[in-house]
Amino acid sequence: MKILLLYPPRENYIFGITPHVHIDADAGFYPPIGMLYIAAVLRKDNKHDVSVLDAYTQQLSHADVAAHIKNLRPDIVGIYCSTYYLPDALLAARSVKQAGPSIITVVGGPHVTLYPRETIRQPDVDYVMAGESENSFAELADCLEQKRGADIEAITNVLTKNSPADKIISAPPVQNLDALPLPARDLLDYRLYRSILTRRNPMTTVITSRGCPYSCNFCSNIESGKKVRYRSAGNVVDELEQVHSSFGISDFLFFDELFTSNKKRVHEICDEILRRKLRIRWHCRSRADVLDRELVRHMRAAGCRLIQFGIETGSERLQKLINKNLDLSGVKETVATVYDEGIYTYADFIFGFPTETADETERTLRFAQSLKLDYVAFGMFHPIPGSTFYDQGLKEGLFNDFWREYVVDQKNVITDHSWTRRDRAKFHGFCSSAYKRFYLRPSYMLKKLLRTDSPAQLLWQAKSALKVFSNLFLGKFE
Ligand code: SF4
Known about the structure:
By secondary structure, the protein is an alpha/beta fold. The chain contains 19 helices and 16 strands. Helix 3 (62-72) packs parallel to helix 4. It is globular. Bound molecules: iron/sulfur cluster (SF4).
């Protein structure tokens, strides 16, 4: 069958509650790696004729997408959908049906995992697919091609318009990640993908494991789950080597929820990169309480250039409340170790957790300033479905099920409901001043100049920073 996988245009994206300063294109574009995995499985053994359209990165409009579909005339269009993307995903489904009413639409992604029944009720959606979909998309395509419609209900993570109301949707995660083919990067123009943080571009993303064993109360890790599945070191480095030799890409972002959850495997990956003498650079995400100096040195030797930490708050009380449970003096030590070993450090912080006091908000910013950090991102707490805080807020009657209300009718506004809604303006103001108070310190700017390994990248970052700060100073953010 002729199958198009579509990452929709971003014309009606919901930016949530965190101040948005409109520099998305300046920050770069990441390849839709999940879709490229599905494409790779679908085209195995030349079973299907598969193409991928990343309308967001290519900056296409819905009209452009409609024209593309009319021209291509696919049998099936698979559409990515997160809740933030819902209006654009539904518009894309409408474009498909207008281009050809018989073209089948399949919608998947985190939104569908959370709200499969609400999504299948949308008029232009024929099938929805919850959870990891590499294997089930291939099964569905085979059923459709072989006109085995009755077998579709047996695919446990798929809903059709006729699925029984009591169908139990279960999306078993892919257990053996090594058995998946490598993502079909050749289906997209790899030169479009770049990041403001990588030393050279184009870059690409790589997923070496799926899942996170922790249970932070604000996090909705609904797609990958708590049980971590790991690719073997050899399999990971095969991908790095293949991408490096086929596309000349040397810069990789490891997109795992938590790359360092298994230290032994991180050592093995580093050993394998060094053994194959791969001259690459990579970034990863880690908790601040799972690294030691020996591991950091090994990572550095194998090309690790940046580690991103989710630190969230500088209050010991809130660390416990959010179930992150980081020891703040340990965080300070780890971040300093990484920084001193020559790896860039990046941390995420969130303001406005439930019950957070003004003093704790200020303490979080001061804690960020006290760390040896090259980059920070500040956000505002917003309860998201699938998280413990969301369930707790619902149970305590703090808010309605506002995400579901939005999903059912997009006239309901998401950002009007949250713990922080009374203080939204205050936290917006604090976020913007936090950026200024962190990045505009002369000591920070001097260190940044001295630590840069790429003047071109520094120039790009300076230009984007100028844009961010002029937006912040002029109050041009939402
Ligand atoms: S915030 Fe990070 S460490 Fe915590 S559960 Fe989510 S992915 Fe895991």
